[in-house]
Amino acid sequence: MGQKPTLHLLYSCPFCWKVRGLIEYLKMDVELVPVNGLKIKKAVSFAGDWGKVPVFTDENGEHHVDSTPLLKLIDTNYNGGKLSAISSTERNDKWMEWADTKVSKATVPILYGSLISAFRTTTRISKIEKFGFISKRLYAWAGFPIMWGIIAKKRVKKDGRTPKKLWHDLLTEFTDEHQGKDFFGGDGPNLVDFSVFGYMRSVSPFPQFSLLEDHLSGMAWYNRMMAKSQE
Predict the structure, then answer these.
(1) Statement to judge: residues 207 and 171 lie in one domain
(2) pLDDT single digits (tens) 75-95
């Protein structure tokens, strides 16, 4: 008998939420293993040179990385590929790439786009992630100026839209593609739904999530995805 599968993750990581959402939906018995946000490479060194989360270890002890390939692997190996079979391969691949290039980049500006929001985010992360006593305070107080000044500021300048406007535009583009159905996958979600859901869900623990709540079609879809995950 093989070992229990594990998912090494950060609770605030959008890529981890993509995979975790699918695992929850499929009711898989997977152990969630939180890692120290300041020691990620060391924590997942068993998986080779990848050095990031999520890392999924299957029942045979094989390690798998990278969130989008992980979605496809889990659907194939534990769900008979049913979600991948919803909609055409061409449509799915196009929108999976859209989510990974557009929505993924929108998470940084909304969480770190201003000095205040960056401070709120790093403080919240220091409370929900697995940190030591000293590293928790170090991350909360030293992390926010780095994230705001070096990373988020550059991304916001490149786009020009406010974080709220960017998210609303993306949610409109995404929900319009549902073509009147409840999900991108039609009457039920497919892998594209779980990809976008993961990115959006990663914002939900933070106060900035309120900026998304007045996008009616986006929140209606998000709530349907939450309900599916909890059935």
Answers:
(1) yes
(2) 999 999 999 999 999 999 999
